[in-house]
Amino acid sequence: MAIISTKQFVHKPLLLEGSLNEVSSTGPRMYNTPEGIFPSVTTVVGFRKQEFFAEWRRKNPEESKRVLARGTKFHSLIEKYLNNEDLDYDNLHSGIKSLFSILRPEIDKIDNIVALETPLWSKILGLAGRTDCIAEYDGKLSIIDFKASTKEKRTKDVDNYFAQATAYSLMFQERTGIIIDNFAIMIACEDGLHQVFQDKPINHVKHLKFLITDYRKHHDTV
Asked: Which of 27, 107, 143, 189 is deepest in the core (most CB within 10 A)?
C-alpha cells in the first residue's frame, strides 16, 4: 500500500561541490574530504559516551541490532517523505510506521529544503559528516536532525546532539557563508511521545570546542 503525501515540500538545494569517502579503519570513523582526513562529527561529540554504549551493546546485542536497524529505516522513510516520494508501507515494521506518524506533524512544519543527507566538512574544526536536513522549520532556517528513541529524553541526555547540530551549522557557514541561527532536534519515542529541542548554535559553540579538544587530547596520547 502506498501512502501519498498531501504535503509537497519545496526544495531549494545549494549545490555544494565535493564528497566524503569513509576511510577504512578499525578505529574511529574517519572521512577523506577535499581538504584532508577528518573524524566524523558523531564520533567526536559522542566520544565520552562511547564506552558506555559499547558496554551496553555488548550486554544487549539483539536490542542493539534492533535499535540500529530502527534508526536506519526511520531516517530512510523521512528522507523519502521530504523528497515527495510515495511511501510504500507494505514492507515496513509497524514500529517504524508508528514513529513516523508520531513525528509527522513536526516534519510537516519543514519547507524550503536546502540540503538532505548532504556531506559537510570543516578545515577549521577538523570535522566531517552528513547533515540530515537543512531547511526552514516554522519559518526559520535550521539544522534539523531526526532521532528515534525508546523513551523520552532529558535535556542532559542529548547535549551531544546539540553539539552535533552546532558543528553542522558552522561547517555549512564555512562552506557557503550562510549563517544558520537555529537547530531543531526532532525525536520520536516508542512510548508515543515526540520531542523537539530547539536552540541557537551559538549557545553551544563553547561546549563543541571542549568536546573537540577532549577528543584530540585523548587520541594524541594513544
From this structure: 143
Phi and psi, residue 26, nearest 5°: -90, -5
Q: What are phi and psi of 105, to 5 degrees?
A: -60, -35
Distances (CA, A) of 10 to 7, 57, 101, 112, 174: 10, 39, 21, 5, 25
Beta strand ranges found along the chain (DSSP E): 2-3, 21-23, 30-33, 36-39, 87-88, 110-122, 127-137, 140-149, 183-189, 194-199
Comparing C-alpha atoms, which of 4, 3, 12, 2 is closest to residue 110? 12
Query: How confident is the model over 18-40, as pLDDT tens digits?
Result: 889 998 667 788 999 999 999 99
Each residue's pLDDT tens digit, 91-131: 777 889 999 999 999 999 999 999 999 999 999 999 999 99
